[in-house]
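PROTEIN DESIGN WORKSHEET
SECTION A - STRUCTURE
LENGTH: 698
TOKENS:
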């Protein structure tokens, strides 16, 4: 029995591990309670020195608290009080303090300290000063402590605040922003709100002065359903902005429900404040909902007007690096042609007054010359889609415009840029490369088969009787910071093809100055009798901004029309000699060119050419010495013209490939006086006969 008792194993006490765990947890909890009690009783005043040293070490700044200091749990939030507190600026920011205040009294969410959300449930600030600066390189700032790279400014989430006599200064040399804002809390009159934080300030943005004022109404804790209500009014460079709505917290913009009302004389003024270039506009007013999500500012339910045009859609501005990103999806029901002028470089005020024509050296100019804002393109990227249902224009039947715009580091693409024109479609792709200086632009504009009658109807010509169509393409490249400059240096091709179709007899007879046939048909009431166009090509070769006819050839059932000359993008002059040879015998047919001259802004037609005057003189002489019938002989068209070869025409043959009835190269195309340079001398290339095969672009 004794041996059994001696060899028996001790019985393990049940629950020992659980008891040990409970003991450890009880000890930890006791220590926490003890620490909490010590901090609560002493208010944590003994932590003043350690606090100064620790914060100074972490921020590499001088940190001092001249007066009372408290840091404890009350009961669950962290209570922080500091009198006469200051934190110095970093050395690169110069002398002065980043932060100083007569008194700071706050309650900080303990859980937010663990998660890093930095939520302040209550903030009392008396006679504070906050100096927010970026360095000149835009790499460091005064609020990012102990970091080589500055982070964007993110204010802590403040639920409620009481601020007295506080000044906030913001300086960003790179963005050219300098602002001073005063903040002061007053008692609110509305019982729903406990206080009103008023603010006002002035400053400059990119050299433009602005003023602002507003208030933030903080909710009364005794009234349910209250939210921080914001009201802000700002004015700058002929622009007024009103912002109103509610915030989840005093500084909590994320998920805010805000309403924006913006109006002014020119929308480009407002966007210039953030370094974004948009076309000029006339008077405008827009309203939208505004909220913030992450690094994005979103304008939704946008609606308003600019000039006599409407606009709706949504816009997002993302504060990304190295450039902010602008995206937009916009729609317009009716776009006034005057409001479209600034998109290609016309002044909105000038186009509204009908004064798009300027003068240079006494000559009229109409090509837009507003320079591209190259420097502004460095600040942002963009992706914009814009649709326009109708365009209000007196003479241009334009509708269904669709624009896709992308900007990537100064490379601007307008693709597609499409619209309906007189039941045809214009498809465009324009590429503007501002990475190069001067700016390099590529134009590729294509017109699908379009009824001539509808197109001419916009210019006062009756549509009935004309069934002909045309298709065209412009393919040019040029350098320059404006449309005028790029076209003045452009190279490429311009071509218009006329497939088969019917045109008014009146139009054809006038083109060939066949007065006899015109008068005869007028009395016979056959002016609207259609004449068939067999084929036609109007082509120009463009070199250095000078466009030379290459070729112009139209074959109808009754005549062969040709032209020579061209026009100049440099000085906007026109010098074309247009001629039509009848295929049939006709009296009074003027077998000499009709001159189309003048300027783009003021073209002229002169049928009385030197050749025609000489023939008229011969006819007059014969009439004096012989009989009146002899004077008619000089105007007789014996109908010696042969039908043009439609194959070469429609296949895009050059001027040299076009030949007369004897097989000789025609000498009445591709040789205009505008092919000369402005100095009056032809270059070596201009002196060469045009041999280049027309681009197979159709």
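SECTION B - SEQUENCE
RESIDUE ASSIGNMENT:
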């Amino acid at each position: 029995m004794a041996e059994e008792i001696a060899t028996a194993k001790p019985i393990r006490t049940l629950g020992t591990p659980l008891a040990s765990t409970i003991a450890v947890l009880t000890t930890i909890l006791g220590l926490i309670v003890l620490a909490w009690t010590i901090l609560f009783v002493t208010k944590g005043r003994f932590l003043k020195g350690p606090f100064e040293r620790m914060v100074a070490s972490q921020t590499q700044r001088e940190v001092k608290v001249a007066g009372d200091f408290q840091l404890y749990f009350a009961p669950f939030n962290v209570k922080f009080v500091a009198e006469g507190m200051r934190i110095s600026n970093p050395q690169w920011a110069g002398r002065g303090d980043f932060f100083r205040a007569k008194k700071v009294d706050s309650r900080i969410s303990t859980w937010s300290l663990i998660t890093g959300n930095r939520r302040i449930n209550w903030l009392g600030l008396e006679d504070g000063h906050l100096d927010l600066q970026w360095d000149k390189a835009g790499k460091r700032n005064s609020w990012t402590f102990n970091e080589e790279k500055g982070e964007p400014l993110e204010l802590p989430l403040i639920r409620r605040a009481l601020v007295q006599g506080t000044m906030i200064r913001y300086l960003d040399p790179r963005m050219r922003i300098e602002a001073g804002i005063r903040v002061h809390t007053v008692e609110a009159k509305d019982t729903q709100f406990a206080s009103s934080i008023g603010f006002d300030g002035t400053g400059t943005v990119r050299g433009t002065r602005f003023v602002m004022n507003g208030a933030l109404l903080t909710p009364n804790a005794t009234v349910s359903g209250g939210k921080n209500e914001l009201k802000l009014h700002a004015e700058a460079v002929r622009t007024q902005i009103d912002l109103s709505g509610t915030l989840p917290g005093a500084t909590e913009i994320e998920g805010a429900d805000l309403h924006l009302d913006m109006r002014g004389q020119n929308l480009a003024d407002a966007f210039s404040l953030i370094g974004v270039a948009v076309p000029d506009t006339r008077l405008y007013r827009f309203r939208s909902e505004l909220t913030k999500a992450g690094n994005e500012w979103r304008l939704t339910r946008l609606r308003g007007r600019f000039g006599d045009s409407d606009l709706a859609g949504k816009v997002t501005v993302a504060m990304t690096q190295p450039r902010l990103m602008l995206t937009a999806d916009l729609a317009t029901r009716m776009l006034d042609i005057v409001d479209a002028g600034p998109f290609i470089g016309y002044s909105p005020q000038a186009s509204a007054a009908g004064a798009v024509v300027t003068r240079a050296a006494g000559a009229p100019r109409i090509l837009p010359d507003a320079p591209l804002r190259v420097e502004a393109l460095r600040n942002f990227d963009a992706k914009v889609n814009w649709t326009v249902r109708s365009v209000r224009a007196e003479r241009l039947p334009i509708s269904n415009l669709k624009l896709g715009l992308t900007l990537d580091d100064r490379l601007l693409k307008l693709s597609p840029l499409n619209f309906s024109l007189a039941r045809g479609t214009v498809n465009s792709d324009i590429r503007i490369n501002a990475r190069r200086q001067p700016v390099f632009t590529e134009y590729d504009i294509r017109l699908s088969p379009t009824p001539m009658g509808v197109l001419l109807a916009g210019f006062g010509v009756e549509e009935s009787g004309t069934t002909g169509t045309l298709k065209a393409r412009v393919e040019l490249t040029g350098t320059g910071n404006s449309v005028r400059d790029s076209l003045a240096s452009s190279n490429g091709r311009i071509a218009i093809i006329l497939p088969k179709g019917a045109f008014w007899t009146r139009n054809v007879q006038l083109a060939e100055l066949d007065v006899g046939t015109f008068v005869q048909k007028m009395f016979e009431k056959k002016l609207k009798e259609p004449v068939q166009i067999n084929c036609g090509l109007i082509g120009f070769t463009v070199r250095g901004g000078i466009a030379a006819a290459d070729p112009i050839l139209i074959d109808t059932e009754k005549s062969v029309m040709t032209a020579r000359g061209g026009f100049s993008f440099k000085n906007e002059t026109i010098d074309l000699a247009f001629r039509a040879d009848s295929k049939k015998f006709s009296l009074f047919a003027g077998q000499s060119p009709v001159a189309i001259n003048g300027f783009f802004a003021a073209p002229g037609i002169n049928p009385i050419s030197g050749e025609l005057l000489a023939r008229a003189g011969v006819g007059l002489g014969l009439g004096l010495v012989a009989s009146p019938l002899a004077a008619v002989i000089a105007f007789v068209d014996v109908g010696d013209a042969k039908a043009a070869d439609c194959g070469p025409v429609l296949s895009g043959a050059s001027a040299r490939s076009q030949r007369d009835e004897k097989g000789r190269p025609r000498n009445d195309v591709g040789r205009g006086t505008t092919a000369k340079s402005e100095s009056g001398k032809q270059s070596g290339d201009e002196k060469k006969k045009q041999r280049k095969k027309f681009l197979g672009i159709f």
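SECTION C - NOTES
The CA atoms of residues 120 and 446 lie 61 Å apart.
The mean pLDDT is 77.
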